[in-house]
Write a structure and sequence with these properties.
7 strands, three-stranded antiparallel β-sheet, alpha+beta, transmembrane helix, 35% helix, 142 residues, FixH family protein, membrane, FixH, transmembrane, four-stranded antiparallel β-sheet
């Protein structure tokens, strides 16, 4: 003999089902808000209007043929290798998840930053200039 399926059974199944759905949604929302702020550009409409200009700047930069390779030395200072004599480098370091303030970087003639980076991953934003030409680069370093 089997037990009868009652309204209490149905209520328990529905509450359990929706309880699992709500718990998963709350968990995913917490992970999403704690890891990435969500801002890639401040105004997506303005960014879309500037997109073709960004593409042209990228083509111009590619035609320069510069090889720019950032890295870290033993003291975690940014070291930039550029195949252009007399190039000037400036930039800043940004934490990929926005958990820390941007760190401005100043470079000497040896193209090594005066500031060391704190431990962790950082996105290095570089502007390399030589005369009227310039190249921009973003590189993530561990």
């Amino acid at each position: 003999m089997t037990k009868r399926f009652t309204g209490w059974h149905f209520t328990a199944i529905i509450v359990g089902f929706f309880g699992v759905i709500i718990a998963v949604n709350v968990t995913m929302a917490m992970f999403a808000t704690r890891t990435f702020g969500g801002v890639v550009v401040e105004n997506s409409y303005v960014a879309s209007q500037e997109y073709n200009g960004w593409l042209e700047a990228a083509r111009k930069q590619s035609r320069l043929g510069w090889e720019i390779k950032p890295g870290l030395d033993a003291q975690r200072r940014v070291l930039v290798s550029v195949n252009v004599e007399g190039a000037k480098v400036s930039g800043f370091a940004r934490h990929p998840l926005g958990r820390a303030e941007d760190l401005p970087l100043t470079f000497g003639d040896d193209l090594r930053s005066a500031q060391a980076l704190p431990p962790g991953r950082w996105a290095i934003h570089l502007l390399v200039r030589h005369g009227k030409d310039e190249a921009r680069l973003i590189e993530v370093v561990p």
